[in-house]
Amino acid sequence: MALNVETISKLERRITITVPLQPLEAQIKQRLGQISKTAKFAGFRPGKAPLGLVNQQYGDQVRDEVYSGAVEKSFGDAVEENKLRVAGYPNIEHKPFGAASENLEYTATFEVFPEVKLGDLSKIKIERPVLEVGETDVKKTLDVLVKQRVSFEPVKRAAKKGDRINVTLKASIDGKEVESTGETGIDLVLGEAGRVESFDDQLAGGKAGSSKQFDITYPADHSPEQLAGKTVSYDVAYISVSQPKFPEIDADFAKSLGIEDGDVEKMKAEITESLKQEVAKRVSAKLKEQVFKALTDDADFEIPSVLLGTEINRMMQTTEQNLKQRGADLSNIKLEPAMFEDQAKRSTKLRLILGELINTNGLHASADQIRAMVDVFAQSFERPTDVVTCVLR
User: Fold this and answer.
1) Is residue 29 domain-shared with residue 165, that is, in the same domain?
2) DSSP, residue by residue, 255-310
3) Does residue 256 share a domain with residue 187?
4) Tens digits of per-residue pLDDT, 145-186?
5) CATH number reported for the structural domain that contains residue 45 in this entry
6) Most distant CA pair in the chain: distance in Å?
7) What per-residue confidence (pLDDT) applies to 364?
8) Does pTM top 0.70 for this prediction?
9) Consecutive H or E run containing 3
10) Which residues share a beta bridge with 13?
11) Among 152-161, 213-222, 321-330, which stretch is predicted with the lowest mean pLDDT?
12) First to last CA, the chain
């Protein structure tokens, strides 16, 4: 095998490789011999067809397979011999295999990984955020948990913010009906997020058995666009009005959160511990963010275009999947590679830096470190022990 390595640019290389064909003939004959043992031809029993007939039928296919294997192997040998760190897949060009006589010559163009040079890491300053968990935080968490477990009881008074109403509703624009619940009522909690505030203001004051008509003019930037800037006329019939009933923070409430003996103080202690773990995660995330930014800001090297393109495609696919899951109409959304280029450059650069640090310093997670991470991860589940057992099984 003869080869020549060219440097096209700082990261791009081209190798020209010549592979003698004579040593490959034995492989081709061996492969044809194997095929002849099972190949079926009219007028011949399996395994009895002349080798010439087998070659006529399968020769080109076998030759292409053997030559392709030779190209792959010779390229790998050339890369190893020249200690080249190939980034991505090479672009291989050659004449048709059938046109080769004594030698097969091909060129492989590819990029190599850059030399990652880090600055003086001792000059990097990282600030650890100070976050404390206090009684106020525990109370806020309990308030959220209480609201999540709210129930509603019917009342005869007029509806107000915080109440849940059950209504039938018709909506019209310029006298044309655009939406209707029919005879089936829908539940709405007055004041909850996600609706125009003036809509809930109009719904307040109604009683069970009453009806109300009103108009709402939506903002020009309203979503969905069908209602943006439009005046919608509503006809509402009230079926029921219910007021919220929040649970007491007592033994039953504690049991509902998994405290088997209903000990309220134990419940608060577990909430405190959970909050501390969450704070620790946030502090760790902030520290990691600072470190990653310092590393990327301090390092200057070219990024292989093949790696950058791969990262852009990955981000585009992830974004598309997320949009689909949210019910977005992708026919109205055009994702362009340029939208992701800056972010892809940062993440690709960081990945190269971290890879260099890992290889240079021989960094590997120990069994104890892995177990510690699994323990932290498991705490967010109802039965942490079962999660740990499942993960480490």
Assistant:
1) no
2) HHTT-TT--HHHHHHHHHHHHHHHHHHHHHHHHHHHHHHHHHHH------HHHHHH
3) no
4) 999 999 999 999 999 999 999 999 999 999 999 999 998 999
5) 3.30.70.1050
6) 98
7) 86
8) no
9) strand 2-7
10) 7, 110
11) 321-330
12) 49
Average pLDDT over all residues of the chain: 90
pLDDT tens-digit series, residues 354-384: 998 898 888 888 888 888 887 777 776 766 7
188 strand-pairing partners: 165
Give the C-alpha distances (Å, rounded to integers) separating 45 from 29, 31, 49.
20, 19, 7
Domain count, the chain: 5
Token pair of 174 as six digits: 């310029």
Contacts of 218 (CB under 8 A, 6+ apart): 196, 227, 228, 229, 230, 231, 232
Tokens of 171: 């909506």
What residues contact 371, with CB distance under 8 A and at least 6 apart? 392
Q: In this prediction, what percent of the chain has a pLDDT beyond 70?
A: 98
Task: Report the residue count for the chain.
Answer: 393
Residue 258, CB-side half-sphere exposure with 13 Å CA sphere: 10
Residue in the block written with tokens 């007939």:
53
* Tokens (6 digits) for 60: 């080109």
- Give dist(CA 330, CA 288) in Å, integer: 34
Q: Are 32 and 59 in contact (CB under 8 A)?
A: yes
The answer to whether 20 and 1 are in contact (CB under 8 A) is yes
Domain shared by 164 and 48, yes or no: no
Q: What is the sign, positive or negative, of the torsion defined by CA atoms of 28, 31, 36, 40? A: negative
Residues 155 and 231 in one domain: yes
103 and 6 in one domain? yes
Q: Which amino acid is at 262?
A: G
Residues 369 and 353 in one domain: no
98 lies in which domain range? 2-112
Locate 162 and state its tokens.
């915080």
> Quick one: tokens of 89?
């897949």
- State whether 157 and 184 are in the same domain: yes
Mean pLDDT of 123-139: 90
**DSSP code string of 295-355:** HHHH------HHHHHHHHHHHHHHHHHHHHHTT--GGG----GGGTHHHHHHHHHHHHHHH
